[in-house]
Amino acid sequence: MILSRIWYVVLAVVAAVSFYLVSLAVGQYNRQVSSASDEELKGDTQVVNWALQIDARRRLDSLILGSVDESVKKALKAANGKEPVPAPSRDEGKKGLLAVSEKLPVDYKFDALFVVDREGRVIAQTGFDGATSDFELGGYPAVFDGLHGFLRDDTWVLDNRIVRVVVRPVEDEVGQPPLGAVVGFKNVDTDFCRDLAKRTRANVAFFTNGNRVAQGAQEGFGAGAFDDLSGELSRLATDDAFKTSGRTDVRPLGPKKDASAIFSRLPGDAGEGGAGYAVVRQKVLMSSFTGFLSNADDSDKKNVSYIAIGSILLFGIVLGILFSFLEHSRPMGELKRQGERLRRGEIDALQLPRLSSGFRAIAQNVNFGIERIVEKGGGAVRKPADLESILGPVPAQPQMSAFSFPMPEPSTMGPLGASAIGAMGGNGAPGFPQPAPGGAQMMPSPAASAPRMAPPPPKAPSPVGSSPQMGNIKPPVPKSAPQFADLAPGPSLESLSAEPEEEQTRVGAAPPGLLDAAAGSTPPPAGPPGGLGMATPAAGFPVTRDVKPASATGDPPEWKGVFEEFVKTKRQCGEPVDGLTYEKFRGTLSKNRDALMQRHNCTRVKFTVYVKDGRASLKATPVRD
């Protein structure tokens, strides 16, 4: 399932990377929006300041109608230097102001107009209800400068109201002091703020004494942002930048910080009292990546390539299904088919090579379970096949018997036809056959004709094939199949020469000759009473020892294990092991190893202990490294 797991990892990595990139995009977007909003807010503040100046200049220009009006001049001439102001002068002045007010442009009409004589007394007014008979404006710097021939504009705070003021002198003769001045008032109210916001495309709010007086915003602007100004207005009195430069830095508003404002002080007399205006701008920030979806409009959605999205989606689905089919559906189908065949009896075990690695372990456990159940029921258990049963004989490296003795001539055969397999050599070791020129048989050692000792007392019956009455039974051996002549030694290699021929036959003598499977030689048909059959493992798989040439200091360490396994196997087969010593066993192994190494030019010999026809036997296999 490696492909599917890798695909899951790829999908997880893609999802994580996508989330990471979108999170970065949200952060970058908010940062860029905040930076752009701050710069735009500074520009809006400057535009509002310019708009206020332009408004004052245009109002001064429109007020020229009052400075040249004849009724206004006539009223001033009649009132200057007289105490109190004559009533006809007041009436004439008011008549002139009403005529001027009607002539003013609609966008620059005033809320109140005043005619002031040289002493600063108001001799006529319109639109100002708070004026009295002794009301005067000469004490204000802007009016004072206007009475001396200057054009002035200013901002006043009257009764908690912010008023925009323009003053224009009324002149009669060139070179003479002005007769008086005409003063116009424009209240900073909601209409004024809306008109200012429309012209500047900014959101403006005017304040004085820590309170908002009027405000105006563009269409779509949330009025709740103006409510967040209250908390900042109370801190302006302690703001050094507002006191010195008349303007603050950008300040975030509200708990979400989704709006910001810049506070500026009004010019003139009102600014000295702390009056000013605030320009506010909202920020469109994203709290999460889902904001991209909620804030997208139709034009944004048109820029999306739905073909690319569909292709990516289809590719991912097809690839995921393909991996699932290759690593799950197909192996599961093969396992299901083999299970059906096993149920019908077409096979007796699941075929592991046809299954993938993940299902192969499961199938192997099922096979083991089937074999265990069969074994518990007393049935024949399949054992692992050896190399010969799978590949047949291997000519390059033929297996050879470790203990194989030629049968003696008919003149030397005992009454039961057993060979002198326990004959001793000149050095006291068991005689070992030498290779014959024409085949795999080895000649018996001279000790094979040594005199025999008296037979020992009768022993208990041996396993199948060890009865003396069956000593002359020789099963036929097919010549077409390669045979391995093996030896199942008697109870003691040291005492076999002293035992009678009948006893040697009873414990089991191996067929004569060491057969070379690669050469295709056939051993003599003689065999033990039990017959020559196929070898079967003893209580499990055969035990193999890899024997290399002995060093000059001693025998290979594997020989000890071969001897112990040989003795153990003989006991399991019910064969006697009295007198079987390692010294005799070692001599036989050494001779057999040297003969095979010389003949096959190999570097080492591998000895195997196994059971053949109920007897313990050995095999020797030359190995070329």
What features would you describe in this structure?
With 625 residues, the chain is of the alpha+beta class. Helices cover 39% and strands 15% of the residues. It contains 18 helices and 17 strands. The strands form four sheets. It has a five-stranded antiparallel β-sheet. It has a five-stranded antiparallel β-sheet with strand order 7-6-10-9-8. Strands 11, 14, 15, 16 and 17 form a five-stranded antiparallel β-sheet that branches. A hairpin with a 5-residue loop joins strand 8 and strand 9. The longest helix has 61 residues. About 25% of the residues have low confidence.
End-to-end Cα distance: 39 Å
Give the spatial strand order of the biggest sheet: 2-1-5-4-3
The main β sheet shows up as:
5 strands, antiparallel
Principal-axis shape: rod-shaped
Q: Which percent range describes the beta-strand content?
A: 15-25%
- Number of helices, counting only DSSP H or I runs of 4 residues or more: 18
